[in-house]
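Q: I have 183 residues here and want to know how they pack in 3D. Can you give me a structure?
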Amino acid sequence: MLLHKELTEEILDAFYEVYNELGYGFLERVYQNSLFIELQDRGFDVVAQRRCNVFFKGREVGEYFTDLIVNNLVILELKACATILDEHELQLQNYLKASTLEVGFVLNFGKEPEFSRKIFTNEKKKLKRKNPPNPLSPPNPCSNHVQRQAKQNDRKSVKTRPVRPIRVPITYKGKPNKMTENP
């Protein structure tokens, strides 16, 4: 059985409704705003551009902004390109990995509508909360300080060397030029 089956079916229905109305060729933001409205009109709790922090060993190392989150259960990453690429699916997978959400979709408003569904269960993430969630506050899957559980006993000290720049040839119209360092 699919996780959040009824909700994800409704999300896909809304996706196709927006695509059938607008068609292909708009910017991603137009589709995001339209899908936001369509999902709200269907009675869902929708949040756009929610800031999510990424932690490494308990320290914040970055952030990302989700396109849409529906009912605090499903992340939607929207695209308006020719086709869904591996990079788009990996982006969604990393969003799921960094949050407590388990289901996500890449929805592409390309020449042909297409989607990719990803599931990353919390038990597979081996997540450890820095601060337990307050049951009285509204849930925010991205505001919980989540970090990878470290196995201190298994760690060995590793000596690292500074990374040297890679030298690559620069070509201009197919002819090699001088060797320069990559920035």
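Q: Anything worth noting?
A: The chain has a mean pLDDT of 76. DSSP finds four helices and eleven strands in the chain.
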